[in-house]
């Protein structure tokens, strides 16, 4: 007998880092910003007109699109908004990857890419990063249905140069190349300027990491107006009001406070550099991270052991079971005080397990 189960859409979902809520925890497992959102955001929230919530929001989220366009020196028709960059990326996959040829992204990268490819039934291939976690440009020269590159890459933290990206784009003028810049603000480098030169390049960024607003869910894409229009057509075909009134207001407010943004990013970078020195001292090795996390492996103590003991002490880092990286930990950069506690505990674990 047939049942409704015969027609189920089955898929193995993406697994985000856990969100524990313990008063004494140090949470270094999902790359959130350790600093609160800008005081401008807090003020905007306090003065928010709650009566307005009975009305639907502006379907175009024009206030936020305009604010982002102004911030980056663009026109607002070059900006696409989404409920976090996960939403933006999913819509980009749906919009641009409708070829029978496989899309390409590295074997070690943001683990949502293959989930979306599976969900939207997009064929894909994952060329292996080299042994130093660098992308191999020639892997992206072959015929394909599109290219996705996280730059800096996650979870490796490695930044590829603008010349590298330009080379890959030059070899892929007939497909859309998505550059996921979730961590670009911590690298001092962005491929944004390439959207002016190439009509097939889409840059995706987020408020979740560098702008301390992961809980608000705001992401955006920047590209030429034809790409943005195509994405909006897909978006409005299943949800007309993606951005809430509150996310539009707070997203625009965050952009008004450039000084705070720079200051908090600089603090994260300073603590990252301190943490790198300490991790080296303890016998860890890692590629030089240009993000707000460090992806490190220890010379003698297994990653799983360190992960488990830290967890008992309510220090949460991320461990991936995937082949090639099972002996690595991804450690988000917290406040200086949080990283000092992390290093203290890790030093003990290493002393006890050598
Ligand atoms: C965090 C992250 C995202 C998603 O961020 P949102 O919170 O959905 O904006 C996208 N890509 C990469 C590589 C990330 O690390």
TrEMBL record:
Which GO terms label this protein's molecular function in UniProt? histidinol-phosphate transaminase activity
- In short, the EC number is 2.6.1.9
The cofactors named for this UniProt entry are: pyridoxal 5'-phosphate
Q: In which pathway does it act?
A: Amino-acid biosynthesis; L-histidine biosynthesis; L-histidine from 5-phospho-alpha-D-ribose 1-diphosphate: step 7/9
For this protein, the record's Gene3D superfamilies field holds: Aspartate Aminotransferase, domain 1, Type I PLP-dependent aspartate aminotransferase-like (Major domain)
**Could you confirm whether the keyword Isomerase appears in this record?**
no
Catalysed conversion reaction: L-histidinol phosphate + 2-oxoglutarate = 3-(imidazol-4-yl)-2-oxopropyl phosphate + L-glutamate
Transmembrane region positions? Answer: none
Task: Describe its partners and assembly state.
Answer: Homodimer.
Q: Which family does it belong to?
A: Belongs to the class-II pyridoxal-phosphate-dependent aminotransferase family. Histidinol-phosphate aminotransferase subfamily.
What name does this protein carry? Answer: Histidinol-phosphate aminotransferase
Please report the organism this UniProt entry assigns to the protein.
Answer: Jutongia huaianensis
Encoding gene per record: hisC
């Amino acid at each position: 007998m047939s049942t409704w189960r015969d027609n189920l859409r089955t898929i193995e979902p993406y697994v985000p880092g856990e969100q524990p809520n313990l008063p004494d925890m140090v949470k270094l497992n999902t790359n959130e910003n350790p600093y609160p959102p800008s005081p401008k955001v807090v003020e905007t929230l306090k003065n928010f007109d709650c009566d307005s919530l009975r009305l639907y929001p502006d379907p175009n989220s024009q206030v936020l699109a305009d604010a982002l366009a102004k911030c980056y020196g663009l026109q607002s028709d070059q900006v696409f908004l989404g409920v976090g960059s996960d939403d933006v990326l999913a819509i980009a996959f749906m919009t641009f990857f409708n070829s029978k040829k496989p899309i390409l992204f590295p074997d070690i990268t943001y683990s949502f890419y293959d989930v979306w490819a599976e969900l939207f039934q997009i064929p894909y291939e994952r060329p292996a990063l080299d042994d130093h976690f660098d992308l191999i440009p020639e892997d992206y020269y072959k015929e394909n249905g599109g290219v996705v590159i996280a730059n800096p890459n996650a979870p490796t933290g490695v930044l590829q140069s603008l010349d590298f990206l330009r080379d890959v784009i030059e070899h892929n003028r007939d497909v859309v190349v998505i550059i996921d810049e979730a961590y670009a603000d911590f690298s001092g480098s962005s491929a944004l300027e390439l959207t002016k030169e190439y009509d097939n390049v889409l840059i995706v960024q987020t408020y979740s990491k560098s702008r301390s607003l992961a809980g608000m869910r705001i992401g955006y894409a920047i590209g030429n107006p034809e790409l943005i229009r195509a994405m909006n057509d897909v978006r409005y075909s299943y949800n007309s009001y993606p951005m809430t009134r509150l996310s539009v207001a707070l997203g625009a407010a965050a952009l008004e406070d450039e000084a705070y943004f720079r200051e908090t990013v600089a603090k994260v970078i300073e603590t990252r550099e301190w943490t790198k020195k300490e991790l080296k001292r303890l016998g860890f090795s890692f590629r030089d991270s240009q993000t707000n996390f460090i992806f490190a492996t220890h010379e003698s103590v297994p990653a799983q052991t360190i992960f488990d003991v830290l967890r008992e002490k309510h220090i949460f880092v991320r461990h991936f079971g995937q082949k090639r990286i099972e002996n690595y930990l991804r450690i988000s950069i917290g406040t200086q005080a949080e990283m000092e506690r992390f290093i203290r505990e890790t030093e003990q674990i290493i002393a006890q397990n050598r």
